[in-house]
Amino acid sequence: MNDMQMSIGEAAKRSGVSARMIRHYEGIGLLPAAKRAYSGYRTYGGHDVHALRFVRHARSLGFSVKQIEELLGLWRNQRRPSSKVKALATAHIAELEARIRDLEAMKHTLEHLALHCRGDERPDCPILDGLADARENGQ
User: What is the reported pTM?
Assistant: First the structure.
């Protein structure tokens, strides 16, 4: 990718990251602040677009901003041990597995409640009763 300078709109288009998110990532320090043209507008080069694509892909895999910050540091460090990258990835896999278990439990509970709801004109509703019971029991 060449180092042609481009606007935030063009960088957004080429990277698949919205201009709003680019500004956000810069604001929180995930990405360095963009260079500024004489006019004051942000300008981006090919290396910036590449980093934005990296961030977009990491986000699509569910990595947190903190994790992406670590991954970016490792990606930029050509002397990094791959063991650090693998450790981050395997920790994230464990987090995903825990979330999947939680989602499966939620799905099972909702399926059970929906199965027992007649879904007719009567006001009796096991779904609402189940939600109310959970709230009263501190769940």
Answer: 0.80
